[in-house]
Amino acid sequence: MLNKLTKLTEEGHTALSSRLFHPYYDQATYGTELLFEKFKASKNQNRFLKLIWAYGVDWPCDKIELAKICPDVCPVFGTPLDYGRGLNRSFNPSVNNDEGFYQPTLDHILARSNGGKDELSNYVVVSRKANQFKSDMETLEELDCFYQGMKRVYFT
Fold first, then answer.
1. Which of 66, 63, 30 is nearest to 45 (CA)?
2. Which of 22, 34, 52, 69: CA 20 to 30 A from 146?
């Protein structure tokens, strides 16, 4: 997995560094015309993509504060996160099976079902792949059981 993650990380950084931004307003790409105008005027358009992404997240929180906690890389896998939406996405999920390593998702650190709150301090941005692996696990015991089972079944 380390070799694959190293390769994915390198490919991700290469793709994101060579991204060309869509030059015209498109709702699926920029959300609102106001965000598009601010994006065009921004000195750091890559960073501004985090704010556009945050406005597309339908969770209760201050979108500007959410954008501030968005990491450049997945804290679980270390792969770069692509905050581009629509025509600004660097990865196409119907072509790239590894797209889940680059797609940011918002998750609760402590699930609401276990008393977690819908507040910024309980949110984490991770890749879709990391979020899928975590699934509904809530304890270290569940994580260890999952890890041991995966090793036993797939990697003996």
1. 30
2. 69
